[in-house]
Amino acid sequence: MTLRSHAGLQYSVDIVLCIDATLSMKPTLANVQRSVLSFHERLTAAMAGKGREISQLRLKVIAFRDFGDRADDALEESRFFTVPAEITEFERVVRGLRAIGGGDEPESGLEALALAMGSEWETGLDRRRHVIVLFTDASAHPLGLPRQVRAATYPRWIPQSMDELFRQWGHAQGSGALMENSAKRLLLFAPEVSPWEDIADDWNNTLFFPSNAGEGLEEWEMDEIIDTIANSL
């Protein structure tokens, strides 16, 4: 979908959805899936209401569990799908997510965040928005935890500390930053626990929507995501 937008500008939106796919998320995963599958239509309508059109919309999914419990599928990453041209392929990936495993309460959410930050983001067009949305009902294991890192499937390039992950996020475009500073946004739908509270307090371009385990998607409003994107372009 390549369309000329407001004042001749072309708008590009890349979104990576990091979804906790452990067993505790089973009551809410179906609702997350349903909302995600209608996402492109709702975002297009929101942009149209502002007199703008998205020139390119790409969606990607990262499902995460726990390297200490299910190392083989602790991280499942799709490629970027251009929507609506590849909506069928995207829907197949989303519908295929299953809530299984999890082990102890913390999950491998920071590894999923690191993986998302290193995505192949769009660098062209006039205005870009690079968005990471993370859904979880749990805290996260610290980076560098031996039980996690020694898993054979653990990505060796994942930062080994929060300080290193923070440098890769970066407060300005500079050495070590993986994402374009003016384009990046992070939306956290997570409990008010470490490390999510710390990230919300310290990282720029980040919005935090506190949630409670087991309460479902009614508090994880997809409208918040759509409004954040539409209002920032």
Helix content: 25-40%
By secondary-structure content and strand pairing, the structural class works out as alpha/beta
What would you say the CATH architecture is? Answer: 3-Layer(aba) Sandwich
How far is the N terminus from the C terminus?
17 Å
Shape: globular
How many structural domains? 1
CATH topology: Rossmann fold
Q: What is the radius of gyration computed over CA atoms, rounded to a whole number of angstroms?
A: 17 Å
SS element count, helices: 8
Stretches with pLDDT under 50, minimum 5 residues: 1-6
Would you kindly provide a written description of the structure presented here, covering whatever features stand out?
It is a single chain. With 233 residues, this protein is an alpha/beta fold. The protein has a single domain, classed as Rossmann fold. It contains eight helices and seven strands, in the order E-H-H-E-E-E-H-H-E-H-H-E-H-E-H. Strands 1, 2, 3, 4, 5, 6 and 7 form a seven-stranded mixed β-sheet that branches. Helix 2 packs across helix 8. The protein starts with 10 loop residues before the first strand and ends with a helix. The model is unreliable at 1-6 (pLDDT under 50).
